[in-house]
Structures are given as structure tokens and as C-alpha cells.
Amino acid sequence: MTLKLWLGVLLGVSMTLPVLAQSPLQVSDGHVRLPVPGQTKAAAFMQIHNATANDIELSSIQCQCASRVEVHSHRHENGLMKMRREESLPLPANASVTLAPGGWHLMLLDWNTTIRTGEDVQLQLTFSDESTQLITLPVKSVFDGGEHRHSHHH
Ligand SMILES: [Cu+2]
Q1: What are the structural domains, with CATH classification, of the chain?
Q2: pLDDT tens, 77-98?
Q3: Residue of 113, 142, 110, 124 lying closest to 32 (CA atoms)
Q4: Strands 42-50 and 105-109, how do they pair?
């Protein structure tokens, strides 16, 4: 077996998720927004409610629909709205966090462009307390709704 093949095997093994506790968090109102035409970055929005007495962080996300999923935020810097990659998404105790255009969101890189509007995708969320949650999100067009006309500039 070649070294390259072995690496593939090792990566494949490390990507299988261990069986972890189901997270106590409630995820609602989620959807994935397809990339704008010609682009490969989709975004996921949702609301996450942490009804526990502990601060938790969303630390990693995996999806077969994208090669990598990042936590992003928008912040004002010198009067400009800037998107930046964050290590994790803070979920304070007894609070809800909304991921929405112009704020926190999940960025799905190298989106699988065979997935279309109306389909569902599954995201595996892993939290700082080592719990996990599998969520199913509907896929919407970037032109859908129109309530948040907002473009991503990376
Ligand atoms: Cu982003």
C-alpha cells in the first residue's frame, strides 16, 4: 500500500465519530443557504437554546455536504462589518443564540453543488462538553425569502 493510500485510511478512520452523549441543546429554525451562483460557500443559520446551567461552546461541525464547516461571526471594525472565523460559538447558560445573516453563522466550504434547494442536509454538531447532536436542515436558495439580502465577502 502506498503512503498516500495509508493516509487516506488513517483520515477515514479519524473521521468516524465516537459515540458520544446527546447534547441537551435545542436547535430550531435552521436552514442552509446555497452559495450564490459561481461560489462554493454555503451558510447555515439556526437558533440554539442552551437550557442548561453551564456555558457550552459549539466547537466543531461536520457535514457530508461540505469539505469543512467553520464558525464565523460578523463584527464592526473601524466602521466596517467584517466576517471572521472563530474557534467556536459560545452558548451561554440559559440563553438562546441566533445564527443569522449579518451575525454568527456556519460557513460550509466547498459545498457539494449537487445538493439543491428543497433537499435536506445533516450536520453533526460537537460541543465543548463532548456531547453531539445531529441536526437536519432544509436547503434554501440564496434568493429565498429575501428578508436578509446580504452578501459574503471572504
Ligand atoms: Cu462566513
Answers
A1: 22-140 (2.60.40.1890)
A2: 888 889 999 999 999 999 999 9
A3: 142
A4: antiparallel
